[in-house]
Request: fold
Amino acid sequence: MRIVLLGAPGSGKGTQSKLLIEKYNIPQMSTGDLLRAAVAAGTELGKKAKAAMDAGKLVSDDIVLGMIQERLNKPDARAGFILDGFPRNIPQAQALDAMLARMGQPLQLALLVDVDSEVLMKRLTGRRTCSNAACGAIYNIYFSAPKTQGKCDKCGSSLSHRSDDNESTVRSRLQVYEQQTAPLVSYYKAQGKLRTVRGVGSVNEIFKNVTDIIEVQMRPLAAAMSAANAAAAAKGGGTTPAAKAAAKAAKAAKAAKAASAAKPAAKTPAKPAAKKAAKKAAPKKKAKPAKKAKPVVKKKAVKKAAPKKTKKAKKAAPKKKVAAKAKKKK
Ligand SMILES: [Zn+2]
Reply:
């Protein structure tokens, strides 16, 4: 599976990424790690990157993409990857798409771990760390406060507050994130690849939702692959039971897909409600530039309203595609 992870600092995206790596046995690629590895290994790209960094310049997108491509060619990335921290803007996302298309490995999912900005603020500004390096216990004054204020439960040492965890620094970090990510969210949404998981609750609850999303997103692809395998087997004169079973499974998957595709039509009566919601939410958004709870309202309304807008245009298209595919196969 090929996934881009999106999420604010403090969203818990990193934790989810680790769990995904374990569960699906695919590598995570963060640009920082790739850079460090390439520079340490002294590869061509690593040398270029080092030259740029030594000159106090940013490492160009071309170099970063080259590193990603090299990493993707390693055997452990055959089953997919998780990209974290890249892309950060639309040109990078487009360049990544172009590269993955050339490699025949298009992105399958952009997963956004979504957390309200007020919760993020508390998570980031409330963090306290035990000053005893040998202990290193971590607390949060809002969510997991120590029994005695300012003292570590485990060793009694004083707790320290990182200077970059202060409110104004955190707020500006979150604003930068918001500015960078909002266009990417739209970009992947337009591609139909964006899925959002609420990043609140226990780590395991969130992970359950993440894997549910992945299973749903990957299933049609798995079905398409097994159909392709079955077709290949049939071409090769393979009438083995396995090939037959694969063909049968592909057929069943197609039928299931058709059934699920038919469902949205039943939801049509909900349209006016979505429209109302969108209308209601819109003026609110304009009235106050303040953040807080508003983006949530906006997001929900947009989500509800989105299928309505595209439904008419899209409805006919997939059917045609399916029909075309079916013809090809026959
Ligand atoms: Zn301690």
User: Anything to note?
Assistant: The chain has a mean pLDDT of 78.
